[in-house]
Amino acid sequence: MRKPAIFFLAPLLLAASAAVAQLGQEQGELQKITVKSREVSNGVVILAVQQGKNSFELQCNKGLRGCTGLEPGDYFMARLPKSHGIYDCMNVDIYRNSTDSADDKIGEYCLVEAK
Protein backbone atom coordinates (compact mmCIF):
# COMPACT_ATOMS: atom_id res chain seq x y z
CA MET A 1 0.00 0.00 0.00
CA ARG A 2 1.39 3.44 -0.96
CA LYS A 3 1.52 6.15 1.63
CA PRO A 4 0.26 9.55 0.56
CA ALA A 5 2.95 11.97 -0.55
CA ILE A 6 2.09 14.30 2.31
CA PHE A 7 3.86 12.01 4.79
CA PHE A 8 7.07 12.49 2.85
CA LEU A 9 6.62 16.18 2.16
CA ALA A 10 5.66 17.26 5.69
CA PRO A 11 9.14 16.78 7.25
CA LEU A 12 10.72 18.48 4.24
CA LEU A 13 8.40 21.48 4.52
CA LEU A 14 8.98 21.68 8.26
CA ALA A 15 12.75 21.74 7.77
CA ALA A 16 12.47 24.40 5.06
CA SER A 17 10.28 26.64 7.21
CA ALA A 18 12.72 26.28 10.13
CA ALA A 19 15.57 27.37 7.85
CA VAL A 20 13.62 30.42 6.69
CA ALA A 21 12.78 31.32 10.30
CA GLN A 22 16.47 31.06 11.23
CA LEU A 23 17.39 33.42 8.39
CA GLY A 24 14.79 35.89 9.64
CA GLN A 25 16.40 35.82 13.06
CA GLU A 26 19.82 36.62 11.65
CA GLN A 27 18.67 40.13 10.92
CA GLY A 28 15.69 41.98 12.35
CA GLU A 29 13.05 43.84 10.42
CA LEU A 30 14.11 47.06 8.78
CA GLN A 31 12.84 50.04 10.75
CA LYS A 32 12.90 53.61 9.49
CA ILE A 33 15.01 56.01 11.56
CA THR A 34 16.12 59.62 11.26
CA VAL A 35 19.65 60.66 12.14
CA LYS A 36 19.33 64.10 13.72
CA SER A 37 23.00 64.88 14.37
CA ARG A 38 26.47 63.39 14.62
CA GLU A 39 29.58 64.11 16.64
CA VAL A 40 32.93 62.52 17.34
CA SER A 41 34.19 62.39 20.92
CA ASN A 42 37.40 60.60 22.00
CA GLY A 43 37.36 58.37 18.92
CA VAL A 44 33.67 57.45 19.24
CA VAL A 45 31.19 58.43 16.55
CA ILE A 46 27.87 59.33 18.21
CA LEU A 47 24.67 59.65 16.19
CA ALA A 48 21.53 61.17 17.74
CA VAL A 49 18.62 59.18 16.28
CA GLN A 50 14.84 59.52 16.29
CA GLN A 51 12.45 56.64 15.59
CA GLY A 52 8.85 57.76 15.93
CA LYS A 53 8.65 59.25 19.44
CA ASN A 54 11.74 57.39 20.67
CA SER A 55 15.19 58.97 20.79
CA PHE A 56 18.44 57.07 21.24
CA GLU A 57 22.08 57.09 20.23
CA LEU A 58 24.05 54.91 17.88
CA GLN A 59 27.76 54.68 18.64
CA CYS A 60 30.74 53.13 16.92
CA ASN A 61 34.52 53.28 17.23
CA LYS A 62 36.01 55.58 14.63
CA GLY A 63 38.36 53.70 12.35
CA LEU A 64 36.61 50.33 12.65
CA ARG A 65 35.16 48.78 9.52
CA GLY A 66 31.48 49.71 9.37
CA CYS A 67 31.78 52.88 11.46
CA THR A 68 30.48 55.78 9.40
CA GLY A 69 29.63 59.28 10.55
CA LEU A 70 26.27 59.39 8.80
CA GLU A 71 24.86 62.64 7.51
CA PRO A 72 21.58 63.74 9.10
CA GLY A 73 18.66 62.19 7.23
CA ASP A 74 16.51 59.08 6.91
CA TYR A 75 17.88 55.53 6.99
CA PHE A 76 16.76 51.99 7.78
CA MET A 77 17.95 50.11 10.86
CA ALA A 78 17.94 46.37 11.62
CA ARG A 79 18.58 45.10 15.15
CA LEU A 80 20.90 42.11 15.23
CA PRO A 81 20.27 39.06 17.43
CA LYS A 82 21.99 38.89 20.81
CA SER A 83 25.71 38.05 20.57
CA HIS A 84 25.86 39.08 16.89
CA GLY A 85 27.93 42.00 15.72
CA ILE A 86 31.25 43.54 16.64
CA TYR A 87 30.24 45.45 19.77
CA ASP A 88 29.37 44.14 23.24
CA CYS A 89 25.86 45.65 23.22
CA MET A 90 22.70 45.62 21.09
CA ASN A 91 24.21 45.78 17.59
CA VAL A 92 22.34 47.31 14.66
CA ASP A 93 23.03 47.53 10.96
CA ILE A 94 22.16 50.71 9.08
CA TYR A 95 21.03 50.80 5.46
CA ARG A 96 20.45 53.58 2.96
CA ASN A 97 16.92 54.92 2.62
CA SER A 98 16.15 53.32 -0.73
CA THR A 99 14.02 50.53 -2.17
CA ASP A 100 17.03 48.21 -2.43
CA SER A 101 18.22 49.03 1.09
CA ALA A 102 18.56 45.38 2.17
CA ASP A 103 21.59 45.06 -0.11
CA ASP A 104 23.12 48.41 0.82
CA LYS A 105 24.48 48.15 4.37
CA ILE A 106 26.42 51.27 5.27
CA GLY A 107 27.39 50.67 8.88
CA GLU A 108 27.21 48.75 12.15
CA TYR A 109 26.63 50.48 15.46
CA CYS A 110 25.96 49.95 19.14
CA LEU A 111 22.45 51.06 20.11
CA VAL A 112 22.38 53.07 23.36
CA GLU A 113 18.85 53.45 24.74
CA ALA A 114 17.85 56.82 26.16
CA LYS A 115 17.55 56.80 29.95
Please characterize this protein's 3D structure:
This protein is α+β, with helices and mostly antiparallel strands. It has one domain. 18% of the residues lie in helices and 43% in strands. It has one helix at 6-26, and strands at 31-41, 44-51, 54-61, 73-79, 90-96, 105-113. The protein has a 6-stranded antiparallel β-barrel with strand order 1-2-3-6-5-4. Strand 1 and strand 2 form a beta hairpin. The longest helix has 21 residues, at 6-26.
Strand content: 35-45%
Taken from the alpha-carbon principal axes, the silhouette is: globular
Order of helices and strands: HEEEEEE
How helical, in percent, are the residues?
Answer: 10-25%
Largest sheet: 6 strands, antiparallel, barrel
How many beta-strand segments?
6
- Poorly predicted runs: 5-26
Averaged pLDDT, please? 79
- Could you say which structural class the secondary elements and strand pairing correspond to? alpha+beta
The radius of gyration is 19 Å
Sequence of strands across the biggest β-sheet: 1-2-3-6-5-4
Seen as an oligomer or otherwise, the chain set is single chain
Number of domains: 1
Helix tally?
1
Give the terminus-to-terminus CA distance. Answer: 67 Å
